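Reviewers of the previous submission asked for a worked example of the structure-prediction workflow described in the proposal, so we include one complete record here. The input consisted solely of the amino acid sequence. No template or homolog information was supplied to the procedure at any stage.
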Amino acid sequence: MFEGIPLPIWAKFTICVLADLFDMTFGRLMLGVSILTDVGSALIMFLLWGPLGLLSIWETADVTEQFDGFVPSNTLIAWAAHRKHQQT
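From that input alone, the workflow returned the following structure tokens.
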């Protein structure tokens, strides 16, 4: 089963935090391309974390970008994936 690109956890976590910061700032301003940034973010999370990363696709449901910009989905996925990895 694909578990993501083999990078150090700190590098994956940093990418997730940066993606969330981009979504919270520029992602909210670019209403015309917000769905594209959300899909791109989900693809990046899939590459980093495997199928668990696809949970960030929920952000495409908010076409106004007013709600999902305040939820750090990528960082939460990184935290959950790290905890899951520690338990196994």
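The longest helix spans residues 9-24. We consider this example representative of the routine output the project will generate in years two and three.
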